[in-house]
Automatic annotation (TrEMBL):
<keyword id="KW-1278">Translocase</keyword>
<feature type="transmembrane region" description="Helical">
    <location>
        <begin position="172"/>
        <end position="195"/>
    </location>
</feature>
<comment type="similarity">
    <text>Belongs to the complex I subunit 4 family.</text>
</comment>
<comment type="function">
    <text>Core subunit of the mitochondrial membrane respiratory chain NADH dehydrogenase (Complex I) that is believed to belong to the minimal assembly required for catalysis. Complex I functions in the transfer of electrons from NADH to the respiratory chain. The immediate electron acceptor for the enzyme is believed to be ubiquinone.</text>
</comment>
<keyword id="KW-0520">NAD</keyword>
<dbReference type="GO" id="GO:0008137">
    <property type="term" value="F:NADH dehydrogenase (ubiquinone) activity"/>
</dbReference>
<keyword id="KW-0560">Oxidoreductase</keyword>
<keyword id="KW-0249">Electron transport</keyword>
<dbReference type="Pfam" id="PF00361">
    <property type="entry name" value="Proton_antipo_M"/>
</dbReference>
<feature type="transmembrane region" description="Helical">
    <location>
        <begin position="46"/>
        <end position="67"/>
    </location>
</feature>
<feature type="transmembrane region" description="Helical">
    <location>
        <begin position="79"/>
        <end position="98"/>
    </location>
</feature>
<dbReference type="GO" id="GO:0048039">
    <property type="term" value="F:ubiquinone binding"/>
</dbReference>
<keyword id="KW-0813">Transport</keyword>
<dbReference type="InterPro" id="IPR001750">
    <property type="entry name" value="ND/Mrp_TM"/>
</dbReference>
<feature type="transmembrane region" description="Helical">
    <location>
        <begin position="130"/>
        <end position="151"/>
    </location>
</feature>
<keyword id="KW-1133">Transmembrane helix</keyword>
<comment type="function">
    <text>Core subunit of the mitochondrial membrane respiratory chain NADH dehydrogenase (Complex I) which catalyzes electron transfer from NADH through the respiratory chain, using ubiquinone as an electron acceptor. Essential for the catalytic activity and assembly of complex I.</text>
</comment>
């Protein structure tokens, strides 16, 4: 049921037009992996669940922070209306790219470590689960790229030509989300050594 939930919520993400709803459903999808790992009750599964929960907590919070910075300037969360923000905020676009790559569990993020632990655990428990987790991972990559391209690429709307600039506090908040994700991969035992 947890794996089926991953497929359903990931598929819902592909149809979202509201940015915050997309991020919220993305979180539910990732927690499906955590739920499946906890249910299997193996040391690797619990380690992967703990790692992914901490990693996704930072990643999802960073995505919500980015969505809020967009909303404060454009006053809309509709993806079709907020295209091309890379032209207005190139540094914020870099944060969007890094956070979406982390959401996709690209190396060398701690998210990848957590997902590998969980996928290995599920495969050892029942080999057909590799198909479902593989499809879920593919859909996750698809909606993460969709979110990045819809918000950052394309031509900016004429109503958004004069947007207020980003603030240092917003960049600091994103550094405080992404820096721990980068540092934890140097010593993952800080969060994953609890059950090994």
């Amino acid at each position: 049921l947890a794996l089926w939930g991953i497929l359903m919520t990931s598929s819902i993400c592909l149809r979202q037009t509201d940015l915050k709803a997309l991020i919220a459903y993305s979180s539910v999808s990732h927690m499906g992996l955590v739920t499946a790992a906890i249910i299997v009750q193996t040391p690797w599964g619990l380690t992967g669940a703990m790692t992914l929960m901490i990693a996704h907590g930072l990643t999802s919070s960073a995505l919500f922070t980015l969505a809020n910075t967009n909303y404060e300037r454009t006053h809309t969360r509709t993806l079709l209306l907020v295209r091309g923000l890379q032209l207005a905020f190139p540094l914020m676009s870099t944060w969007w790219l890094l956070t979406n790559l982390t959401n996709m569990a690209m190396p060398p993020t701690i998210n990848l470590l957590g997902e590998l632990f969980i996928i290995s655990t599920l495969f050892n428990w029942s080999s057909p689960t590799i198909v479902i987790t593989g499809i879920g991972t593919l859909i996750t990559a698809t909606y993460s790229l969709y979110m990045f391209l819809m918000t950052q690429r394309g031509s900016i709307s004429t109503q958004f030509r004069l947007l207020p600039p980003t603030h240092t506090r917003e960049h600091l908040a994103l550094i405080l989300h992404l820096l721990p994700l980068g540092l934890l991969i140097m010593k993952p035992a800080l969060i994953s050594g609890l059950f090994t």
